[in-house]
């Protein structure tokens, strides 16, 4: 089948590989896994993910609603700041509502009375430690607004909550570091943890990375859960869906300016924005060699560059270029910059069947504007 480029191609077999790892960790640890929708919200593959994961976590009312309608299971709500109206809407969808500060908890918890979330309110705590290669994504960065930092305030309001969320990792593939930080949290917050029923350890733990010590990780979670008699949640985004999609593009032109620059029918700014924000190269799905190219997007942004590569093959107009590892923080961030054609969403099912799930048109572009 010839599919029109550009498109994101999600491979359910690759998703399943990650889900099997989650299955193993769950079996040993008893922890529950919630998909972080802010990373990946492509609901057409939720039927597969929900066989292995226990629900979703969200950053907004819309995400919480999507989790409730399309995924089911536990529907955790979190927001850096809720309005009263947010809570009114969330009551319908969320079984757990996590507040970012004690001031928000105190001003809003009464609105949850007589709802399913009433007995499952939580507070995000900023443990002042973190793992992240980027200041932009570091939850414990200086002046961070993410989570309550004052232990005394948490203790004074402990009766209003049944759980807490610590999200303090970002792409942390170092188990020893994770383990040490969890020990530090146990020590610092032990008295608080003993009074709670559940704790979420957030996302950002790269347990699906090759050679990650899965058994050690699962046992560490189990030990933490038993020590404090807690139900444990993890909220993986990237780790759950890593390496499961590619962005398939086509070369439209090759121009020369000291180097050969291949221009593809996509854009890093519009279709893989996270890479641009974090100043990272896209990864290719092919053999490398000695043919040097800059592969660039077709938006008018001068820095719309996917990366500098040395390929085994020569590119020409019409060549297909596949970028890999394009599931996380791509489709959720795609935008209409330059009015570029939005990549379609294509899924390769477990059966091998390839389905074009969604194609975007001029109408979608117009509807997103006014
Ligand atoms: C971003 C985020 C996640 C998911 O993070 P990943 O790095 O994609 O695993 C989970 N929980 C919270 C609170 C987050 O902000």
Describe what you observe in this structure.
- With 370 residues, the protein is of the alpha/beta class.
- It folds into two domains: 12-241, TIM Barrel (Alpha-Beta Barrel), CATH 3.20.20.10; 244-367, Lyase, Ornithine Decarboxylase, Chain A, domain 1, CATH 2.40.37.
- It has twelve helices and 17 strands.
- The chain has helices spanning 12-29, 46-49, 61-70, 84-93, 102-108, 151-156, 175-194, 214-228, 238-241, 268-271, 273-277, 362-367, and strands at residues 7-11, 32-36, 55-58, 74-78, 96-99, 121-124, 163-165, 198-200, 231-234, 245-257, 259-264, 283-284, 288-296, 305-311, 320-324, 344-348, 354-358.
- The strands form two sheets. Strands 1, 10, 11, 12, 13, 14, 15, 16 and 17 form a nine-stranded mixed sheet that branches. It has an eight-stranded parallel barrel with strand order 2-3-4-5-6-7-8-9.
- Strand 4 (74-78), helix 4 and strand 5 form a beta-alpha-beta unit.
- The model has no long low-confidence stretch (mean pLDDT 97).
- The structure holds pyridoxal-5'-phosphate.
